[in-house]
Amino acid sequence: MNDQQLLRYSRHILLDEIGIEGQDRLLRARALVIGAGGLGSPAALYLAASGVGRLTLVDDDTVDLTNLQRQVMHTTARVGQPKVESGREALHQINPDVEVVALRERADAARLGELVRAADVVLDCSDNFATRHAVNRACVAAGVPLVAGAAIRFDGQISVYDVRDPASPCYACLFPEDGKFEEIACSTMGVFAPLVGIIGAMQAAEALKVLAGSGRSLAGRLQMLDARAMEWTEIGVARNPCCPVCAGRPGVE
Description:
The chain is 37% helix and 18% strand. It is α/β, with parallel strands linked by helices.
């Protein structure tokens, strides 16, 4: 690190759990963020501010006026722009040294596999089960840790699915692909603005811990927030030995 970097990241470097070595790992790290909306905005902003070397943003949508109530990476002046382009501008304003790859696309399974293999951590900031399962399959196949968050109305949840650990479940262990989960959109049900900030910031925190090799991640634990009462609930999540997505991984007897 040069003098400017030592100064910029000094508050991380002061932490025993990160230090020079951990910050250097962040500077060399590659993070893939799926979705540049409510969750992806705070997640990407904190990753860029923390010095993650390369951020890849994937989203095929454009900035809409209704997004601005919660998607803090975008501005009124950028309404109508692709979200990934708006995001790249915002991230470079915070940290011009971070490489930002802006991909305006809806990645299919093959493309997701390619993108995930090039990443050190994946943050699923999408808003539908089809994308979440596709991202999970790609992470399982590539052996890349996944930080998944979700938020709707006043309810949020977050967990880490780290398939490098034989005991860690994958997303499909908890939410089977053939499960009957109701698809709810914030465009019809609404979402409390700070909620996505809380969950997205936590996704960034979990990703940074994974990349820096510090602390204990949320792997094997699902945290759920009821923002009406600001109450957290945590449940343990076991790996499903019959999971059709990850049953072939080592560790299941």
